[in-house]
Specification:
By secondary structure, this protein is of the alpha+beta class. It has nine helices and seven strands. It has two domains: 100 residues, Ubiquitin-like (UB roll); 122 residues, Fumarate Reductase Iron-sulfur Protein, Chain B, domain 2, CATH 1.10.1060.10. The strands form two sheets. A five-stranded mixed beta sheet has the order 2-1-5-3-4. The chain has a two-stranded antiparallel ribbon with strand order 6-7. Bound molecules: iron/sulfur cluster (2 copies) and FE2/S2 (inorganic) cluster. Part of an enzyme complex containing three subunits: a flavoprotein (frdA), an iron-sulfur protein (frdB), and diheme cytochrome b (frdC).
Length: 246
């Protein structure tokens, strides 16, 4: 039920960049949709109303609606953010929406972050490297990890691969092969993990150039825009020092 007092109720205009790259007749264009604002409305809810009641062809992604899956990243008034975690009451009467730059466009507000993240993950080998993993007894009880270290690992594991840091990154817009703050954060996570036997020299092979940590201009758009508030600035500075010492 809408509990916004009548004299404060707003009609929102969602101005959406529409384009279907698979349709040869499609031209990128802005299209306006009007939605009546309700109490505690998120942008995700507003977009659903548009799709259900006005234009079923509108493309955008969501799964969890709770800031967990990372699917609903988009440019909201020019800033990368999650639609499901953005309250319309924090926005003006007109909201301009566009797809995240830096990723292949699927259509309208939907981009293929999954393909980019998989490529980054394969390139940076974001999995535990250890001897004898193939023959490890998976039923055996794992060695206990120091709780403080586990907490540090968990902090970096909170990344939901939403792509907001990639979209906010000036280097990414200039250098397609740059691994982004999300990739550097992954390396910082495995570097911290005592189960991973890779040395700093091994990590240098992965990120010790302009497509890795030395390509970062440290303007920290990633740190400002990460919806999970990951400590990206700290991790990038830490990796830069470690890699410079190799
Ligand atoms: S580091 Fe933050 S902004 Fe980047 S992908 Fe992970 S959660 Fe999203
Ligand atoms: S600090 Fe580095 S990774 Fe972060 S947005 Fe700037 S260039 Fe990109
Ligand atoms: S729908 Fe999952 S993060 Fe927004």
């Amino acid at each position: 039920m809408n509990t916004i007092p009548l004299n404060q109720a707003r009609t929102l205009t969602l101005r959406i960049l529409r384009h279907n790259p698979t349709d040869p007749d499609s031209e990128p264009r802005l299209q306006d949709f009007q939605v009546e604002e309700t109490d505690a409305m998120t942008l995700f809810v507003a977009l659903n109303i548009v799709r259900e009641e006005q234009d079923p062809s509108l493309q955008f992604d969501f799964v969890c609606r709770a800031g967990i899956c990372g699917s609903c990243g988009m440019l909201i008034n020019g800033r990368p953010a999650l639609a499901c975690r953005t309250l319309t009451r924090d926005l003006g009467d007109t909201v301009v929406l566009a797809p995240l730059p830096g990723f292949a466009l699927i259509g309208d507000l939907s981009v293929d972050t999954g393909k980019w993240m998989r490529g980054m993950s394969e390139r940076l080998e974001t999995w535990i490297h250890a001897e004898g993993l193939e023959t490890k007894n998976l039923d055996a009880i794992e060695d206990a990890m120091d709780p403080e270290l586990a907490e540090q690992l968990y902090e970096l594991e909170r990344c939901i691969e939403c792509g907001c840091c990639v979209a906010a990154c000036g280097t990414m817009q200039m250098r397609e092969e740059f691994v982004g703050a999300v990739g550097l954060n992954q390396i910082a996570r495995f570097q911290l993990d005592p189960r991973d036997t890779r040395s700093d020299s091994d990590y240098y092979e992965l990120i010790g150039d302009d497509s890795g940590v030395f390509g970062c201009m440290t303007l920290l758009g990633c740190d400002d825009m990460c919806p999970k508030q990951l400590p990206l600035a700290t991790q990038i500075a830490f990796l830069r020092r470690r890699m410079a010492a190799v």
